[in-house]
């Protein structure tokens, strides 16, 4: 279909500049039908508080790891870790969850539930709500956030011990 | 796959540069493009987080990651176009010619733009005082859709679901699309159509001079 565009300045300069000026008033001109069809606007498990990213961020910081260091240790793409921590709608790959669980010493099956890859058990959902209510993204964990994190991890471990 | 040339605008010196337009792009090619774009998306995210920018103002396609959609992309029937310059994908568009009909003009056929996005380095992220490197990439792709519609015999009619941040472009006096409301079947994304009349004006204004 591009045959008649060959060797021609189509669209022409005048049109291009006028349209580009209009385009410049927007962040981007993204069209979203396909992304919506593929469920990229929300997590597959909407009823669970989206605390997976924050939990990963807290666990990383509590262990004194940078994002890059965690990505290297877990052999996961840096961009995926950034997406997990900053975009709470992100549903990570199962392999990523397993690798993060290994490095951060957290129970992989429970992390899988929190990540939206499996239906979470009730006790986990309740703990996630409490954690979501008490935690904020910050550069350094406050005492209260540290306590919230520790309590949440305790539930994760207990839920795993209980099967 | 075939290719031709199109001009886009380089912001640094306000010059038109000759880029390559390729067609025959398939949805599964998005995964490869994501490997190119993903690190830039991540950089923008990191900077927005570092500065504590309210998430409601972030670019609305920032979290898209096509690399995770491989099997689903293979099943799609869209086909599309990319604009390349200096070895980098500056923008992409996927279109459908059979799945949608015009709501504006009584069920007549149209080209539906399933996906259109410029590369993250071409975004204008106001909160970061960041302007895109190349201008007009989305506009040229939009023109290609109008041209495709004309060549399919659809008289230039085009439909799309815009992201809210892009609405002022599609609804504006230059693009001249008609808003047909929020689409409940698409998570209330606004649906826009370009009428036959407006399409013909674009083809006339943008054509060979």
Which regions of chain B have little confidence, pLDDT < 50, spanning 5+ residues? none
Number of helices of chain B: 5
For the sheet with most strands of chain B, the description reads: 9 strands, mixed
Strand fraction of chain B: 25-35%
Q: Kindly provide the radius of gyration of chain B, computed on alpha-carbon positions and rounded to a whole number of angstroms.
A: 17 Å
Q: How many E strands of chain B?
A: 9
Distance between the termini of chain A: 59 Å
Outline type of chain B: globular
What's the architecture of chain B in CATH terms?
3-Layer(aba) Sandwich
If helices are DSSP runs of H or I spanning 4 or more residues, what is the number of helices of chain A?
9
Number of domain units of chain B: 1
SSE pattern of chain B, N- to C-terminal: EEHHEEEEHEHEEH
Explain what you see:
- The complex is a heterodimer of chains A (about 160) and B (about 210).
- Chain A is about 60% helix and about 0% strand.
- By secondary structure, chain A is an all-alpha fold.
- Chain A folds into 2 domains: about 1-35, no CATH class; about 50-160, lambda repressor-like DNA-binding domains (434 Repressor (Amino-terminal Domain), Orthogonal Bundle).
- In chain A, helix 4 crosses helix 5, helix 6 (about 95-105) crosses helix 7 and helix 8 (about 120-135) runs antiparallel to helix 9.
- The N and C termini of chain A lie far apart (about 60 Å).
- Chain B is an alpha+beta fold and about 210 residues long.
- Chain B has one domain (about 5-205): 3-Layer(aba) Sandwich (Aminopeptidase), CATH 3.40.630.
- Chain B is built from 5 helices and 9 strands.
- Chain B has helices at about 30-50, 70-75, 135-150, 165-170, 195-205, and strands at about 5-10, 15-25, 80-85, 90-95, 110-120, 135, 160, 180-185, 190-195.
- In chain B, strands 6-1-2-3-4-5-7-9-8 form a 9-stranded mixed beta sheet, sandwiched between helices.
- In chain B, a hairpin with a 5-residue loop joins strand 8 and strand 9 (about 190-195).
- The longest helix of chain B is centred in the N-terminal third of the chain and has 21 residues, at about 30-50.
- At the A-B interface, helix 1, helix 2 and helix 5 of A face strand 1, strand 2, helix 1, strand 5 and helix 3 of B.
């Amino acid at each position: 279909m591009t045959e008649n565009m060959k060797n021609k300045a189509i669209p022409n300069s005048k049109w291009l500049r006028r349209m580009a000026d209009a385009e410049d008033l927007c962040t981007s001109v993204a069209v979203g039908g396909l992304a919506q069809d593929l469920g990229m606007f929300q997590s597959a498990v909407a009823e669970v508080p989206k605390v997976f990213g924050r939990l990963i961020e807290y666990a990383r910081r509590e262990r004194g790891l940078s994002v890059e260091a965690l990505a290297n240790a877990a052999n996961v793409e840096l961009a995926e870790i950034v997406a997990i921590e900053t975009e709470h709608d992100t549903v990570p790959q199962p392999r990523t969850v397993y690798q993060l669980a290994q490095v951060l010493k957290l129970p992989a099956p429970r992390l899988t539930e929190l990540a939206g890859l499996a239906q979470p058990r009730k006790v986990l959902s309740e703990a996630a709500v409490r954690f979501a209510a008490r935690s904020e993204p910050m550069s350094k964990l406050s005492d209260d956030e540290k306590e919230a994190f520790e309590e949440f991890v305790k539930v994760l471990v207990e839920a795993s011990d209980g099967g | 796959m075939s290719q031709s040339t199109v001009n886009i605008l380089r912001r640094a010196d306000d010059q038109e540069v000759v880029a390559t337009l390729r067609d025959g792009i398939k949805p599964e090619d998005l995964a490869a493009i994501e490997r190119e774009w993903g690190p830039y998306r991540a950089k923008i995210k990191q900077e927005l987080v570092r500065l504590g920018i309210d998430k409601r103002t972030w670019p609305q396609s920032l979290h898209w990651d096509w690399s995770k959609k491989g099997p689903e992309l293979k099943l799609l029937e869209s086909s599309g176009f990319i604009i390349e310059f200096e070895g980098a994908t500056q923008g992409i568009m996927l279109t459908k010619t059979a799945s949608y009909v015009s709501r504006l003009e009584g069920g007549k056929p149209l080209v539906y733009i399933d996906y259109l996005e410029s590369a993250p380095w071409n975004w204008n992220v106001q909160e970061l005082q960041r302007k895109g490197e190349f201008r007009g990439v989305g506009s040229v792709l939009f023109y290609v859709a109008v041209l495709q519609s004309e060549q399919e015999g659809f008289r230039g009619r085009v439909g799309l679901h815009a992201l809210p941040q892009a609405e002022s472009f599609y609804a504006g006096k230059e693009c001249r699309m008609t808003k047909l409301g929020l689409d409940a079947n698409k998570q209330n994304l606004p649906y826009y159509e370009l009428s036959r009349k407006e399409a013909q004006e674009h083809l006339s204004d943008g054509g060979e001079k």
